[in-house]
Amino acid sequence: MIEGHGDDLYRYDADMVRMNFSSNVYPHADHTALKEHLSAHLDMIKHYPEPRTRSLEKLIALKLGLSSESVMVTNGATEAIYLIAQMLHHSASVIPQPTFSEYADACRINHHIISYENTEDLSSLPSDRVYWICNPNNPTGNVMTKGVIEYIVRRSPRYTFVIDQSYEDYTQEELLSPKEVLSCRNLFVLHSLGKKYAMPGLRLGYVTAHPDTLQLLRTFQQPWSVNALAIEAGKFLIKQDKPAIPYLDAYLMETERLRTRLREIEGIRAFETKTNYMLCQIEDHTSTDLKYYLVHEHGILIRDCHNVTGLSNHFFRVATQRPDENDALVDAIRQFLNLQNPKE
Question: Is 60 exceeded by the pLDDT of residue 300?
Answer without folding.
Answer: yes
